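Journal club prep — side note

Before the paper discussion, L.F. wants everyone to see what a predicted structure for a comparable chain looks like in token form. Sequence:
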Amino acid sequence: MRQRWKRLAWLTGILAAVAGFGAFAVSRWEAYRFRVAPTDVRPQPFDPAGWATGSATLRHGMARQLVAEGMLVGRTQAELGELLGPPVRVSFTDALGWYLGERAEPTGLMWNYDEYLLVYLDERGQCREATIGGRD
């Protein structure tokens, strides 16, 4: 009888560990999915609320739409700040940058990389070009 209780306790411990690991894996996946965009993000219409709180996939999609349609060209730095929020410092370029999130590396063999919406200003302080750039 005592042996049966030992086995039951042992089995209960294993099941609890498996359930705990599963819950941990699901929570990490949700955080990862929110932070990392896949390689095949499609353009999406710009939504200020989604831009401010959206996942990396949503921000990448909106940035692709903004760049493709040239919606930022001609806007001043102040107008860009009102639309997109304050820019972040991007050390590898002289452009204004807005962090989009991490992007999955296409082959899946390397690490994810950071991507930014980059805006280059002309001498009048207006956007002359907007692109999406990344850094390994």
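L.F.'s comment for the group: The chain has four helices and four strands. Keep this in mind when we get to the figures.
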